[in-house]
């Protein structure tokens, strides 16, 4: 199950990206805390609910206090007690019908206003568009017009709204980066939209929020926010095709590339300029990624080796089968994947 | 009004011996239970069965909490976890709370309305057996290759044949269809009973509040079950016969499933909670020595909830992307369903206010219900703030919310109901000290288990995940929740120990141990087969109370009769003791011996077995090399059973040794099997046509 490896995943991924990007990455203690938004979209939701929590808290205190007061004040002290028989009180009952209705009406107005605001599609030339496709159990990200396809780790620029289109190729999923936005379902035969935005550069975690089969728990996601300039550099590096390793300089990697074709990897995975499979994640720039397999494993040799030996053992239900690779083939494939910068 | 399905009153029906099964006669023993049509016995069967399923669902809950006690749990595999959480939800909703409510409906409603049984006693038995066999059917999937694993909500297309090719989902689909038959039939039976078989004088607005909640809940079942039945049929056709209702690749619409499911699923919430509301509304006045505060408002608010409950289902789908107009409309409707719910909470507090509160175990559970259900109601309002619901939905915050509603609400109410009505049902009292231990451990365990889930969810943990990372930062809260689950388990053991010990001690309850208010306490504990020797005539809501007490000019309570004295075996004696001799009930000199009750029957059980066989046939029929012969056999058994049932008279002619030669039931004995029930709704016309006394004595004070 790779449990020990996974346990340190987030810390490892965060630390790695922090080092690379030299930037803070929010509250590491609670990486998916909705109460600690890191962008204006999530903050708008938080600011809408905070006063509701306060009002609900007051009503909670009122009701519990009344219950406790009544329980103490009116407890039976003698079996002869003959309380006054009160059958109701129309005024009081009208009162506690109208009061909550008024409070809820106020909450309702703010709710409706926000509903319409968060459903607006961002406009303007600077808006980055990303098409997210949910798959059992990983995420595919395409950047229309930028010739970039990647998986599980979405890269976005800070300080600008990202217009996300959500599609599903199989079952219902739900895309949820809690610190950046509320979740929106990813439904087959349906085009859904959402907006996300990060204020500061950093790594933001999330995961699929709609039960989508056996490995629903293993369908995580990462959003990496860069400064706009760094984002453009990332786009440029990811738009390029992969180059084939030179058999002289990198014999292992070259053998791995050969195995990639011979053992059928190429029929499922795309490596731009080399293979064009559509079933699994695009691997053209795999070595740039911190994680793999639905963002559950840190992208290192030990985890890759375990994965290539038997993917379904590492991730229940994995559509990538056990390919019966030899240890040598695995070493070569890892060497090849390492060249996919 | 009632369509007479069981022609008991037809003079001398030709008794056709179906020639298959001899009419069962055993008054005791296993067969007497398997063939019983007595609403009280069926109620007990429902209750015991639901409690066994509660233990199973509880074990599943403990497995879930063990798996999630620590990050990267290894107690269950991913697939096992998915089966267990699916079965936990399915069990607790369809096999515990609904049938536990049905247990109380069956046992109490005829007693509370002064009837001798439900309208269709054999149909009642059929409901129970269909429920039991449906539950066993679903659970048998654990043996036959794997339990349902698509969640209790079974979202398509994950539950389609493409993504769930095994039989797990088939068991869920067919099992819920079978349980739906049980619920729908039961609801019809109860509705007819409540509308047509009330004692003379009991207008609708004199019905006990629990009976009112049963009526509303039954109507909700009647209208909600067909919706999920349609959804399940469509899914069954997709899975077994290649249709494409939810198959996205072929142009089907997965969102249609969600609409159908939640159009059933939300009213279902009120089906689960209204009976418990009825129970606490009965318990509080008894132990406060005060009438229910605002009885008409309690009725009307529940009716309002029943109606509004149909207009809020999209709040389960705020993240589906239905557009701002739909989301806004359903946000508002969801907020406003909180209004009648809030009214109820304040009316319960009003009931307690100024009372003389005796904190017996049932009272503790009832007051605990108010405190805990309020929390669930308030988190429900936060879901209605739909933009933020995008953060809450499908997280543990929602899990916390509905457990405060269904555990803090429904199960607290049901536990209160169990302690309250236990002495009526079994004739002996449950120990109050152990009961209090049960309550406090239950309360502490419940809050320990579910309060942290609010934070677990808001801090980013989704539902239905079999594993989570250490780095999610939620280890301590998850561990706390697991500890709470085990405290609840211990509390449940306290309850079982209480039952065992109290049964041994056998402290006799007498007819009216709580100085209660409603008619079920006006007969012996446990009640005789025929419930009431003489059908009571009702003058007010809280009829029994008004036979024991009156009010002075200041509205203070004045006792007319001691509780032991007032709660006599027969209604007539109660009448005399209360000084209402003029309004005496119709006299039946032989005190029940001439009462002709419906006879036991094998056919409800046989018909239910037919449905179960049909179910297995449908599950496996689509397999290669298998056909639908088994389903045909099940259908045949069902058909034969229904035919024989139809030919069998509801009540056998009495045996000569009973001293009666009646070939048909005496027409002047009411409420046997529906046929001779009062004809008009709520008019209080006695079955023999005489006007009920005191009809103008409305509103019970």
Walk me through the structure.
- The complex is a heterodimer of chains A (341) and B (701).
- Chain A is an alpha+beta fold and 341 residues long.
- Chain A has helices spanning 3-7, 9-21, 40-73, 90-118, 228-239, 251-262, 265-268, 301-309, 311-314, 327-339, and strands at 128-135, 138-143, 148-151, 153-157, 162-168, 173-175, 184-186, 192-196, 202-207, 220-226, 270-271, 275-276, 291-292, 297-298.
- In chain A, the strands form 5 sheets. Chain A has a 5-stranded mixed β-sheet. In chain A, strands 4-10-9 form a 3-stranded mixed β-sheet.
- Chain B has 701 residues and is mostly helical.
- In chain B, 58% of the residues lie in helices and 1% in strands.
- Chain B has helices at 30-34, 39-68, 78-112, 121-140, 168-196, 209-241, 254-288, 295-308, 324-352, 361-384, 386-392, 396-426, 432-458, 475-505, 543-548, 563-566, 571-577, 603-620, 629-647; strands at 549-551, 557-559.
- Chain B has a two-stranded antiparallel sheet with strand order 1-2.
- In chain B, α2 packs antiparallel against α14 and α18 packs antiparallel against α19 (629-647).
- The model of chain B is unreliable at 1-16, 571-575, 577-593 and 657-701 (pLDDT under 50).
- At the A-B interface, α1, α2, α3 and α4 of A face α3, α7, α8, α9 and α10 of B.
């Amino acid at each position: 199950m790779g449990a020990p490896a996974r346990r340190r995943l987030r810390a490892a991924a965060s630390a790695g990206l922090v080092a690379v990007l030299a930037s803070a990455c929010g509250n590491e203690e609670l990486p998916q805390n909705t109460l600690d938004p890191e962008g204006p979209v999530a903050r708008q939701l938080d600011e809408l609910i905070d006063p509701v929590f306060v009002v609900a808290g007051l009503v909670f205190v009122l009701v519990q206090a009344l219950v406790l007061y009544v329980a103490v004040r009116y407890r039976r002290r003698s079996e002869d007690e003959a309380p006054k028989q009160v059958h109701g009180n129309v005024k009081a009952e009208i009162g506690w019908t109208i009061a909550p209705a008024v409070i809820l009406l106020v909450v309702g107005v703010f709710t409706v206003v926000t509903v319409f605001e968060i459903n607006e599609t961002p406009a303007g030339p600077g808006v980055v568009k990303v098409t997210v496709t949910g798959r059992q159990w990983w995420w595919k990200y395409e950047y229309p017009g930028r010739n970039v396809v990647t998986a599980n780790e979405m890269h976005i620029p800070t300080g600008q709204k990202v217009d996300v289109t959500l599609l599903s190729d199989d079952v219902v999923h739900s895309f949820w980066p809690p610190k950046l936005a509320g979740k929106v379902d990813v439904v087959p035969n349906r085009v859904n939209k959402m907006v996300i935005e990060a204020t500061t550069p950093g790594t933001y975690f999330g995961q699929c929020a709609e039960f989508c089969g056996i490995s629903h728990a293993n369908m995580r996601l990462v959003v990496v926010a860069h400064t706009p300039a760094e984002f453009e550099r990332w786009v440029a590096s990811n738009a390029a095709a992969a180059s084939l390793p030179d058999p002289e300089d990198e014999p292992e990697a070259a053998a791995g590339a050969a195995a990639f074709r011979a053992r059928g990897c190429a029929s499922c995975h795309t490596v731009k300029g080399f293979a064009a499979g559509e079933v699994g994640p695009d691997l053209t720039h795999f070595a740039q990624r911190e994680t793999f397999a639905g963002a559950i494993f840190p992208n290192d040799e030990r985890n890759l080796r375990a994965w290539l030996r038997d993917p379904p053992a590492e991730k229940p239900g994995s559509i990538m089968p056990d390919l019966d690779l030899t240890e040598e083939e695995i070493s070569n494939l890892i060497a090849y994947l390492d060249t996919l910068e | 009004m009632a369509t007479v399905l069981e022609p008991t009153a037809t003079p001398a029906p030709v008794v056709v011996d179906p020639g298959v099964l001899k009419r069962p006669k055993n008054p005791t023993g296993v067969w007497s239970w398997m063939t019983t049509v007595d609403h009280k016995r069926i109620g007990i069967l429902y209750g015991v069965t639901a409690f066994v399923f509660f233990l199973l669902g509880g074990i599943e809950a403990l497995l879930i909490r063990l798996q999630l006690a620590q990050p990267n749990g290894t107690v269950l595999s991913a697939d096992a976890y998915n089966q267990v959480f699916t079965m936990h939800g399915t069990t607790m909703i369809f096999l515990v709370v609904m049938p536990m409510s049905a247990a109380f409906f069956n046992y109490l409603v005829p007693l509370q309305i002064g009837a001798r049984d439900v309208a269709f006693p054999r149909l009642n038995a059929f409901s129970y057996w269909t429920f039991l066999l449906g539950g066993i059917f679903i659970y048998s999937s654990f043996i036959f290759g794997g339990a349902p694993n698509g969640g209790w909500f079974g979202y398509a297309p994950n539950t389609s044949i493409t993504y769930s090719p095994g039989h797990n989902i088939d068991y869920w689909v067919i099992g819920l269809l079978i349980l739906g038959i049980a619920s729908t039939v039961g609801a019809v039976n109860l509705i007819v009973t409540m509308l047509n078989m009330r004692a003379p004088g009991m207008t609708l607005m004199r019905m006990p509040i629990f009976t009112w909640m049963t009526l509303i809940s039954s109507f909700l079942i009647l209208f909600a079950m067909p919706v999920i039945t349609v959804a399940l049929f469509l899914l069954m056709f997709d899975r077994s016969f290649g249709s494409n209702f939810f198959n996205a690749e072929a142009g089907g619409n997965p969102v249609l499933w969600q609409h159908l499911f939640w159009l059933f699923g939300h009213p279902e919430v009120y089906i689960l909670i209204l009976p418990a509301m009825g129970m606490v509304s009965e318990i509080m006045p008894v132990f406060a020595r005060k009438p229910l505060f605002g009885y008409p408002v309690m009725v009307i608010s529940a009716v309002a909830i029943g109606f509004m409950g149909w207009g809020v289902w999209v709040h389960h789908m705020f993240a589906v992307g239905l557009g701002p107009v739909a989301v806004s409309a359903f946000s508002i409707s969801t907020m406003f369903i909180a209004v009648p719910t809030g009214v109820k909470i304040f009316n319960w507090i009003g009931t307690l206010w100024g009372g003389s509160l005796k904190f017996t175990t049932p009272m503790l559970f009832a007051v605990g219900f108010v405190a805990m259900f309020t929390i669930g109601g308030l988190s429900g309002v936060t879901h209605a703030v739909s933009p933020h619901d995008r953060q809450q939905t499908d997280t543990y915050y929602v899990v916390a919310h509905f457990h405060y509603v269904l555990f803090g609400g429904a199960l607290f109410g049901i536990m209160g109901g169990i302690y309250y009505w236990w002495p009526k049902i079994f004739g002996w009292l449950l120990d109050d000290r152990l009961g209090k231990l049960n309550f406090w451990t239950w309360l502490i365990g419940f809050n320990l288990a579910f309060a942290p889930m609010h934070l677990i969810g808001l801090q980013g943990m989704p539902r239905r995940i079999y594993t989570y990372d250490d780095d999610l930062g939620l280890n301590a809260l998850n561990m706390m929740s697991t500890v709470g689950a085990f405290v609840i388990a211990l509390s449940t053991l306290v309850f079982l120990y209480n039952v065992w010990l109290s049964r041994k001690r056998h402290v006799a309850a007498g007819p009216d141990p709580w100085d209660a208010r409603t008619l079920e306490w006006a007969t012996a504990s446990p009640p005789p087969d025929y419930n009431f020797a003489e059908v009571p005539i009702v003058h007010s809501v809280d009829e029994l109370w008004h036979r024991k007490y009156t009010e002075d000019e200041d509205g203070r309570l004045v006792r007319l009769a001691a509780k032991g004295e007032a709660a006599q075996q027969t209604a007539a004696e109660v009448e005399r003791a209360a000084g209402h001799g003029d309004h005496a009930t119709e006299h039946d000199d032989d005190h029940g011996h001439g009462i002709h009750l419906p006879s036991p029957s094998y056919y409800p059980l046989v018909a239910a077995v037919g449905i179960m066989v049909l179910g297995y046939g449908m599950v496996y029929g689509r397999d290669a090399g298998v056909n639908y012969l088994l389903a045909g056999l099940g259908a045949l058994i069902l058909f034969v059973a229904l035919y024989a049932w139809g030919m069998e008279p509801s009540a056998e002619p009495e045996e000569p040794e009973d001293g009666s030669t009646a070939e048909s039931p005496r027409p002047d004995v009411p409420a046997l099997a529906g046929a001779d029930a009062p004809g008009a709704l709520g008019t209080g016309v006695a079955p023999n046509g005489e006007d009920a006394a005191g009809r103008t004595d409305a509103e019970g004070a």
